[in-house]
Write a structure and sequence with these properties.
This protein is mainly α and 314 residues long. It has a domain of 218 residues. The longest helix has 27 residues.
């Protein structure tokens, strides 16, 4: 049985509270410019209520179950925090023209537009769409491994995981980039067959109210699953750096930290396919995905260091 008698915080709760505090201040500062500030505050109330309920009930559970019970609602809330990124970042002019130009300069083309043209068969489509779709399962596998096999390190792993996620969200709040699936769809809608020449026009706040996106041709089960997932939860935001690449990199670093070669070996092929899939489905410019590697590594070590400094109690 859990031996703790007093009120304390596990990593999932601590990192969530820090994120709530920072973003609540942002809501207050930007209140007149936000479309739904009361709804955003309401979500924070739901998060606090979830933490209160789990705090009141975990004492009668075995330790491992208590960790799971207190963490999972806050993991689920990541899905609900995501739409707020669009609310914050759309307050500023979008910067897709900058990142499209970087891709053009570095690679001499737009990889997000050409990748699927060079690998257009049903086989490649399914493979790369599967890679993109397993993002959630890759993260779940690593967190679950720590819960079951590395319980003593679970709290630290969760601090790194959620802390990195929230750092990505905070970057997105102030760096509006919609991604190629939105940007090039917008250019087609605005300029039509006449094209936009050799430049990449700035579109200002266009994506605050426009959600049209390129929908790739469906070529299999995973292609359909990706399209359905994007139709439900995707927003013209959070493209730079790629959190799909970033958070899967954080998870791979956590997997490597376990010293379990089987875990790393099983996840590695899916990780590589995920990296490719972010560009293949036009969710990210190639520079977004490459940058995701560097941001993830930095966030991993920053949050790891923060945990050691704070000496969060398990």
């Amino acid at each position: 049985m859990v031996q703790r008698k007093r009120l304390d915080l596990i990593s999932a709760e601590l990192t969530t509270l820090i994120y709530i505090a920072i973003t609540t201040l942002m809501i207050v500062v930007f209140w007149p410019r936000l479309d739904d500030p009361w709804e955003m505050l309401g979500l924070r109330g739901v998060a606090l209520l979830a933490m209160a309920v789990t705090q009141l009930t975990y004492r009668w559970m075995p330790r491992r179950m208590a960790l799971f019970w207190r963490s999972v609602p806050l993991f689920v809330l990541l899905i609900w925090w995501y739409p707020e990124v669009h609310s914050f970042c759309s307050l500023y002019p979008y910067q897709d023209h900058v990142f499209a130009a970087i891709d053009q300069t570095l690679f001499g083309c737009q990889p997000a537009l050409e990748f699927d043209q060079h690998f257009s068969s049903a086989f490649w489509s399914e493979l790369f769409n599967m890679g993109y779709y397993v993002y959630y399962y890759l993260m779940f596998s690593v967190v679950l491994f720590y819960l079951i096999r590395r319980t003593d390190e679970y709290d630290k792993a969760v601090f790194v995981f959620l802390g990195s996620f929230f750092l990505f969200y905070l970057v997105y709040d102030f760096l509006p980039v919609a991604g190629p699936q939105y940007y090039f769809c917008a250019l087609q809608n605005l300029y039509g067959d006449a094209g936009w020449g050799d430049s990449f026009p700035a579109l200002g706040n266009y994506f605050k109210d426009h959600f049209d996106m390129i929908v790739p041709e469906m070529k299999g089960v995973f292609g359909q699953l990706v399209i359905e997932a994007q139709e439900i939860g995707e927003r013209p935001a959070a493209a730079y750096p790629s959190s799909h690449v970033g958070m899967s990199t954080v998870c791979m670093l956590l997997a490597w930290r376990t010293g379990n070669k089987w875990l790393v070996g099983v996840l590695l092929p899916f990780y590589v396919l995920l990296f490719c899939g972010t560009v293949y489905i036009k969710a990210h410019y190639l520079i977004d995905s490459i940058s995701g590697l560097f941001f993830a590594t930095a966030f991993y070590y920053i949050t790891l260091r923060m945990y050691e400094k704070l000496k969060v109690k398990k």
